[in-house]
Amino acid sequence: MTTPPLVLPFGGQPPAPPQPQVQLQQAQAARDVNTASLCRIGQETVQDIVLRTMEIFQLLRNMQLPNGVTYNPNTHGDRLGKLQEHLRTLSVLFRKLRLVYDKCNENCSGMDQIPPEQLIPFMEDDSSKLEERSAGQSRPATEERREILEVTKKLKQKNQQLKQIMDQLRKLIWEINAMLAVRS
Fold first, then answer.
1. What pLDDT, in 10s, does the model give residues 103-113?
2. What is the pTM assigned to this prediction?
3. Which of 29, 44, 105, 137 is the most buried (most CB within 10 A)?
């Protein structure tokens, strides 16, 4: 048996009992948490786990060992209590992470799996791997890529030639300055 509220809300009317449809919608929303928000919750849980673990190591580092050195039993007991509390919290966080992981796997079980190699872009200098991957690509993209590689190769050659010319000019200027210095 519940007791009525002592103070009625604004307007003097008691609050209306929740409608079954509203409760049904809230229950449905709680069940249909999307995978992205689950992943965010999982990420926050992992961050909490790391934070708690760091706090545990900090407590362990600051805790004095009873090896004959005088220590305050009250302080030691407080730190031990904090350590046990952190360990319990850590255990709860790991259970929460397991639940989030299982729910994410359940939500993603119907999705087709794409190998990670296709999701990560790789930088390649060899044109040999270009032919291996070009089987699934269209012809114009392959030809455009080949043209880009040729232009890049020519550009590197021109840069090398310019570097050689600059080195020769630097040597020539050095020799001219040396001759002028000898003359004076």
1. 888 888 777 77
2. 0.45
3. 44
Find, among 55, 43, 58, 44, the residue nearest to 88 by Cα. 55
Q: What is the pLDDT of residues 143-156, one digit of tens each?
A: 888 899 999 999 99
pLDDT of residue 1: 46
Cα 95 to Cα 89: distance, rounded to the nearest angstrom:
10
The span from the CA of 158 to the CA of 165, in Å, is 11
Provide the 10 A C-beta neighbour count for residue 100: 20
> Is the torsion defined by CA of 132, 137, 143, 145 positive or negative?
negative
Place of tokens 């992943």: 39
Q: Which two tokens stand for residue 7?
A: 């103070």
Whether 45 contacts 93, CB under 8 Å: yes
Cβ partners under 8 Å of residue 48, min gap 6: 93
* Residue 64 near residue 76, CB atoms below 8 Å: yes
Positive or negative, the Cα torsion across 19, 24, 27, 28? negative
Cα–Cα distance, 107 to 117 (Å, whole number): 23
Q: How far apart are CA 96 and CA 44, in angstroms?
A: 11
**Could you give the CA distance from residue 95 to residue 102 in angstroms, rounded to a whole number?**
11
